Amino acid sequence: MALDDLKGFLQKMQSDSELKKKVLSSSTADDIARIALSLGYEFSGDELLRFSGKKVGKVTVKKNDVPGEYS
């Protein structure tokens, strides 16, 4: 289930400083989802965005609004 994978990925990120750096330097939610998939966690960028505002452990998911981005 994607939500379980998303939560597991966020928990792993708390204890892995290199992973945290990769995630924080990512441009899009899809980029983060690809990083997660390479580690065996499967969720989409859209699922990550819908999780915005929620917290897992010490990690709170926040959507960054990029200037010039169009919806």
In brief:
The chain is mainly alpha-helical and 71 residues long. It is built from 4 helices and 2 strands; from the N terminus they run H-H-H-H-E-E.
What would you note in describing this structure?
With 71 residues, the protein is mostly helical. It has one domain (2-60). Helix content is 54%, strand content 6%. The chain has four helices and two strands, in the order ααααββ. The protein has helices at 2-15, 17-24, 29-38, 45-50; strands spanning 55-56, 59-60. A hairpin with a 2-residue loop joins β1 (55-56) and β2. α1 (2-15) packs across α2.
Shape: globular
Mean pLDDT: 88
Radius of gyration: 12 Å
Give the ordered list of helices and strands: HHHHEE
Sheet with the most strands? 2 strands, antiparallel
Unreliable residue stretches = none
Count of discrete structural domains: 1
How many separate helices? 4
Beginning-to-end CA distance, first to last residue: 28 Å
Class by SSE composition: mainly alpha
- Looking across the biggest beta sheet, what order are the strands in? 1-2
Give the proportion of residues in helices. Answer: 40-55%
Portion of residues in beta strands equals 5-15%
The count of strands amounts to 2
Task: Describe the SSE topology.
Elements: H1 2-15, H2 17-24, H3 29-38, H4 45-50, E1 55-56, E2 59-60
Antiparallel strand pairs: 1-2
Helix pairs in contact: 1-2
